[in-house]
Amino acid sequence: MPQALALQMDTGGPPAEPADEGAWGRRAPEALRLTPTWDLRFNRIREIPPGAFRKLRNLNTLLLNNNQIKSLPAGAFEDLENLKYLYLYKNEVQAIDRQAFQGLSSLEQLYLHFNQIETLDPESFQHLPKLERLRLDSNALHCDCEILWLADLLKAYARSGNAQAAATCEYPRRIQGRSVATITPEELDCGLTSEPQDADVTLGNTVFFTCRAEGNPKPEIIWLRNK
């Protein structure tokens, strides 16, 4: 039985069309479903539908780097509970659903560098209890108050000594190239971004007030009415 599977889906034509749900797992012969390593590099893959790798529970290593993947939807890696190594670098990833990596309970290494990721949801990596290595450098990360959770996560990895992680800021320009782990709320001026203003209103009419705040954890705004 082969120990690795290299699939060349496209060698010179247009980008590969998206696979339908469960396509790769369903179409693979039984022997290939037992193969621990799938190599899908350089196939011009543009999309990973939810459940595309269903029934590939023996998969240990999945190489998807050097493709044209633009987003990772919820359930993209469903059924891969034994996957340990996931390579997604050098794609065009811009959006990652907060449940894209859900179910990857054995994942140890995740490579997302050299993509176009600007923002990440705080729940993005909560489903990865065994993660030891995370690469997010060479992306387009916006380092604002909404990314402070990632700074805290990277610091926690560093303190534990059990994990390595890298992520760098692309914006704003004044901190371009800085490690996300070094960003502090003070230098980002986290706090109220839009304060309520006085308004004149005629009895019986409607008036609107706006108040916005940024921070980590997310601030809770409470409105008080004079009695």
TrEMBL record:
Domain of life: Eukaryota
Keyword flag Protein transport: no
SUPFAM superfamilies per the UniProt record, alphabetical: Immunoglobulin (SSF48726), L domain-like (SSF52058)
Keyword Membrane: yes
Membrane topology term: Single-pass membrane protein
Signal peptide region: none
UniProt keywords, alphabetically: Disulfide bond, Leucine-rich repeat, Membrane, Repeat, Signal, Transmembrane, Transmembrane helix
Domain Ig-like: residue ranges: 185-227
Gene Ontology cellular component annotations, sorted alphabetically: plasma membrane
Ranges where the record places region Disordered: 1-24
Cellular compartments annotated: Membrane
SMART domains to which the protein is assigned, alphabetical: LRR_TYP (SM00369), LRRCT (SM00082)
Protein name per the record: Peroxidasin like protein
Organism: Myotis davidii (David's myotis)
